[in-house]
Amino acid sequence: MTRPHRGEALLDYLNQAGTIPLLTAAEELHLGAIVQEWLQHPEPPPALRRRGMRARNRMVSANLRLVVMVCRRYQNRISSLQLDVLDLIQAGNLGLIRAVERYDPSRGYRLSTFAFWWIDQAARRCITELGRAIRLPTQMIQLAFRAQRLQASSPERLSLAGVAERLGQDETRVTTALRTLELCSTASLDRSLDGLEKGATLLDGIPDPHSPEVSDDYAWLHQQLRGLDPLDQRLLQLRFGSDEGHTLVETGRALGLNKNQVQNAERRNLRRLRRRLSPMLHPQPSHSGAAG
């Protein structure tokens, strides 16, 4: 039997969850009271245990759509971490179960209001734990995230001492958390760069170690450059040897020349290189094989 595609599995789950009827406020209070009676009983009899478990399962199944709604808020985040949304939903379901077991119907609020926090916390914990190849203590990750949010939201640049003071934490602990998070951050080589399922991945951007080096590709050019005078080589290196490059004035200052001398020397050497390289860049077809 072939395994269903994860997109099809998610669709089946949503369809099944959508067929389960919701609870009215009265039903929610009634079932919540049964669950609490079961859980708070020191030694619940079998009949009460069965009633309590049925009531808990009914409350959980009726709120599965709430879990999906909460987990969809993190859709972009889990896509970048290569996490399956069904794994996140299952974690949210565990949070929903804990919420149902802690729900106090005597306070009068709806279960969805109370359960939202538990579901969201379970989803966040799942992302924190499963979204990293290197497992880190949850408290350390949360401290690092809090420090990053504080630095990002502050109108002025905060030092680590200032961040630690505002968080009520020791500066060494904050520094360790941020440094650990930075060193342990990993990315899957199969992660899509454009968000498409079959798009380019990080692996596509890693060069082949057997491909020729840049220096190998331009060895013929370097050979021609070495044929110039040392002063001319230095001039071209200053002007074109880096991404930034030096201005005519800066190059002249380094070589003890004025701007016009640098410009004239540059044009002369470029013309000389152009004459030498033209036959290599635009070879003429050979006529040695033509019939006489």
Short description:
Helix content is 65%, strand content 0%.
Explain what this protein looks like in three dimensions:
The protein folds into three domains: 13-130, Four Helix Bundle (Hemerythrin (Met), subunit A), CATH 1.20.120; 138-183; 214-281, Arc Repressor Mutant, subunit A, CATH 1.10.10.10. It is built from 15 helices and no strands. The chain has helices spanning 6-18, 25-40, 46-62, 64-72, 75-80, 85-102, 111-130, 138-153, 160-167, 171-183, 214-217, 219-225, 230-240, 248-255, 259-281. The longest helix has 23 residues, at 259-281. The model has no long low-confidence stretch (mean pLDDT 77).
Order of helices and strands: HHHHHHHHHHHHHHH
What count of domains describes the coordinates?
3
Radius of gyration: 34 Å
Low-confidence stretches: none
Structural class, from helix and strand content?
mainly alpha
Tell me the number of helical segments per DSSP (H or I, 4 or more residues long). 15
Please tell me what the overall shape is. Answer: elongated
Task: Look at the structure and give the mean pLDDT.
Answer: 77
User: Under CATH, the topology of the largest domain is which?
Assistant: Four Helix Bundle (Hemerythrin (Met), subunit A)
Distance between the termini: 73 Å
Question: How would a crystallographer describe the biggest sheet?
Answer: none
Quick one: CATH class of the largest domain?
A: Mainly Alpha
Our estimate of the beta-strand percent is under 5%
